[in-house]
Amino acid sequence: MSSAVQDLLAILDLERLELNLFRGRSPQVGWQRVFGGQVIGQALVAACRTVDVVGRPPHSLHAYFLLPGDPKVPIIYEVDRIRDGKSFTTRRVVAIQHGQAIYTMAVSFHRDEPGMSHQAKMPEVTKPENLPNEAHIKERVLPLMPDPVRRYYERERPIEWRPVELDRYLGKKIEDGRFHVWIRATARLPDEPAIHQCVLAYASDMLLLDSALIPHGRTVFEQTLMAASLDHALWFHRPFRADDWLLYAHDSPNLSGSRGFSRGLIFARDGTLVASVAQEGLLRERNRRLTGGRIHENGHRHHQAVQARGRARCVGRDRRARDDSERGQGLWPPERPHRNLPRRRIRRELFAQDSHRGGGAVRSRGRHRRGHHCISQDRADR
Question: Which alpha helices (H) appear in the chain, and where do they start and end?
Fold first, then answer.
């Protein structure tokens, strides 16, 4: 087994902290945020740990990315056992970092039942053996990628992918907007079906959002674009192996409001439809100015939050409270004892607190009238 696949299986092997509480870690590869597929895969593992997946495997998941994940600290996964029915089981998983939910997902499990069947036809595309291999792809495409992305793809990776329309990454525009890529794990995986489902969940976030840019002849690898997954849905239809070649067929029905919507059908080599995927993601020009928010050249995002008593300030993405006593200051309303104090004294004390902590974004008292708040862009500002 390759070291990259071993590392992937180690990442998916969560540490159980309590009955419904798990801890996952991120690979230290120099990324500024956690790869979305990693969180999807780890959250699915956490849900599967609370269900007998041998007789009742997962059949669908629906997830929202709330905040960027910090790869430097572990991720806590809390599983809520929503329902255990006769045919279906439902779980809700929340991923937590720094005391905040960064990701939430609902997973449904279903015992296999006989019934009617049909499926979409697999597209007729070039087989993976007749496509450029990994070395050829690196030689032609890697020089076009941003440095962090290029460094990632220069390493040994757990998922191998061979695009059918490779010229798309060399500037060629695809007229019909459809994109096909063969994917598989780079080494044999254990035979447990749930492992293959979690590995496919990990891989399903790769390249999907990029399909929304195909009609425009652009890619997420461009440094002028900021891309981030907003939500993700995955349906498992039939058994498969993630270490065999799977055809991932993409298309994008819509891109508007800086949000791209992409769909994917995943076929086994013999033409069997094994899974379907849907995702919406943020696709924003980095130099675009937004009312109430700003984007740095390095791509970092600044949140805005409703501030106590009409004041507002811009809080950096990677700012963290130093301890629990400070965690409620700046983003949340004052503690209860403050409510009985005069308004001017509240402003004076808040101004003093921010001055003491070096808060340079505090506005003067006269800049905001009562009721004039700066509303948080929250997830939409990614």
Answer: 3-12, 36-48, 134-141, 147-154, 193-203, 343-357
Q: In sequence order, what are the residues at sequence separation of 6 or more whose Cβ sits closer than 8 angstroms to the Cβ of residue 252?
A: 177, 211, 212, 213, 214, 215, 260, 261, 262, 263
What is the rounded radius of gyration, in angstroms, for the C-alpha atoms of the chain? 23
The answer to whether the CB of 292 falls within 8 A of the CB of 304 is yes
User: In this structure, are residues 78 and 21 in contact, taking their beta carbons and an 8 Å threshold?
Assistant: yes
Q: Please report which helix (H) or strand (E) contains residue 184, including its range.
A: strand 179-185
324 is known as an active-site residue: no
For residues 120-159, one letter each, b for 16 or more C-beta atoms within 10 angstroms of the residue's C-beta and e for the rest, the string is: eebeebeebeebeeeeebeeebeeebeeeeeebeeeebbb
Taking a C-beta distance cutoff of 8 angstroms, is the pair 112, 138 a contact?
no
Write down the pTM of the prediction.
Answer: 0.73
CB 347 within 8 A of CB 369: no
What pLDDT does residue 10 have? 95
Catalytic entry in 38, 42, 108, 229: 229
Q: Please state the rounded mean pLDDT for residues 151-176.
A: 78
Active site residue 229: yes
Cα–Cα dist 245/267, whole Å: 9
Does the CA dihedral 124-130-134-138 come out positive or negative?
A: negative
What is the token pair recorded at 333?
């309303």
d(CA 351, CA 223): 38
Of 70, 108, 205, 251, which one is the catalytic site residue? 205
Beta strands per DSSP E along 11-165: 15-18, 21-24, 58-65, 75-84, 88-97, 100-110, 159-163
What domains, with CATH codes, occur in the chain?
3-285 (2.40.160.210), 302-381 (no CATH)
Report how far Cα 111 is from the mean position of its chain's Cα atoms.
28
262 is known as an active-site residue: no
User: What band does 146 get if pLDDT is binned at 50, 70 and 90?
Assistant: low
- Active-site residue (options: 97, 108, 276, 279): 279
pLDDT at 65 exceeding the cut of 70: yes
Vertex 116, ends 110 and 118: CA angle to 5°?
Answer: 100
